[in-house]
Amino acid sequence: MPATDKLIAGYQRFREGYYQENKDKLRQLAEQGQFPKIALISCSDSRVDPSVILDCEPGDLFVIRNVANLVPPKEETDSFHGTSAALEFAVTGLEVESIIVLGHTQCGGIKALMDTPETNKPDTFIGKWMQQLEGVRNEILSDETVIDQPTRYSHCEKKGIQQSLQNLMTFPWIKERVEAGTLTLHGWRYDINSSQLCSMDKDDGQMTIIR
What we know:
Elements: H1 4-16, H2 18-21, H3 23-32, E1 38-43, H4 50-53, E2 61-66, H5 82-93, E3 98-104, H6 108-115, H7 125-130, H8 134-141, H9 149-168, H10 172-180, E4 184-190, E5 197-200, E6 207-209
Parallel strand pairs: 1-2, 1-3, 3-4
Antiparallel strand pairs: 4-5, 5-6
Helix pairs in contact: 8-9
């Protein structure tokens, strides 16, 4: 059976169930547009679905997904900046009130970065994308107190969230709103094994379970 058959069956259930029960709300979204209060940067990992984890409805979240939920710094080069473009629209167009960087455990992008020798020059799209955290990786590898690879992965996942929060502040239209108090930045991390969600302290990077 083709994998898409499951999607088609799901769509049929959606049309017969959820759509019928929420037709007015969905029609309102279609006619009036979207007004989400939150932009969320999430990993492309198929096990981490923000709308499912956070029990959200259509229109609640403006979700930006990429490998390892990374926010690159503001760049002036003429290139294709998908994440930056989506953030710009969320902040200046939709005027969201919060931006959440949602990291997670068992991140494949982080694992690929940490498992790649420092001397290797990235020659893949993933390798070049993950090079954003090259400094983080080198810092972790030079830490003699971190001796096992699973702990290195965990450290890199957390520090990746921290760096993304810092990079958000390189965009002037984010920085000015944060300083004005009209925009708030959050770092969250989802544990795939336990389904626990943690919030990151902006100052020391410590994680606190969200209850």
